[in-house]
Write a structure and sequence with these properties.
By secondary structure, the chain is α+β, with helices and mostly antiparallel strands. Helix content is 26%, strand content 27%. It has a seven-stranded mixed sheet. It has a two-stranded antiparallel sheet with strand order 8-11. Helix 1 packs across helix 2 (44-56).
């Protein structure tokens, strides 16, 4: 199944929240504290406010299979303090809240979401796609390594959050995707410090990526 990616809207907040709650329960059942209160994860109310802000800025995307939401990703150039240096942020897009609906696990939805982040990085001429992963989730770390990322470092003690495993992949290492184009639409990616940026393209890339070689495991999640 090849997912279709579209910008998220505020009406998708309930679906994205369901993804988060579903995956948190799934992880907890397997002994992970990711996104839990005990693990110092964001309260669900804070998560919803953060995602709503990203949706309004055009930073959040939904992957659909046959018109049904199957996953989500947020992409911008911001990160929690003391994770990446200003120089690293300036030449990268940052991935947040990548979550795949468990019903679609194993269908390379996460791979398509990551490729879309690389596509957005190309649009903004950023050389890197970077993310911070839950520090203790070794299965998640292994997933990103299989997806072509390398562990840059574990952020030092000045970064006090629970997601301090810093992964990165060069934008140029992704093949240019095949795009389905629709006339008269725009691509949105908000990058600080400027207001929301709108790229007016002759035709809008709603990504339909080709499956690659990485098999997506169960914990295809990103805080």
């Amino acid at each position: 199944m090849t997912p279709h990616l579209r910008p998220a809207c505020l009406a998708d907040l309930g679906t994205i929240t369901r993804f988060r709650l579903q995956r948190t329960s799934w992880l907890a059942a397997r002994g992970s504290d990711q996104w839990t209160r005990a693990g110092r994860g964001l309260p669900i109310e804070t998560f919803v406010r953060s995602v709503a802000h990203a949706v309004r800025n055009g930073e959040t995307w939904i992957a659909e299979i046959d018109g049904e939401a199957a996953g989500t990703i947020t992409v911008n150039d911001r990160a929690d303090e003391n994770l990446w240096s200003p120089g690293e942020l300036a030449d990268a897009v940052i991935i947040h809240y990548m979550i795949v609906d468990l019903r679609f696990a194993g269908n390379r939805i996460g791979e398509s979401l990551l490729a879309h982040a690389a596509h957005l990085a190309r649009l903004e001429h950023r050389s890197w796609v970077r993310l911070d992963a839950w520090t203790t989730n070794e299965d998640l770390h292994a997933y990103y390594r299989r997806s072509g990322f390398r562990l840059s470092r574990i952020a030092g003690p000045e970064a006090t959050g629970p997601s301090r495993a810093l992964f990165e992949r060069r934008t140029a290492t992704w093949p240019h995707p095949a795009l389905t184009l629709t006339l008269g639409e725009t691509t949105h990616l908000a990058l600080d410090p400027a207001p929301t940026t709108v790229w007016h393209l002759p035709q809008h890339p709603l990504l339909r990526t080709h499956p690659g070689v990485v098999a997506e495991p169960g914990p295809a999640t990103q805080p």
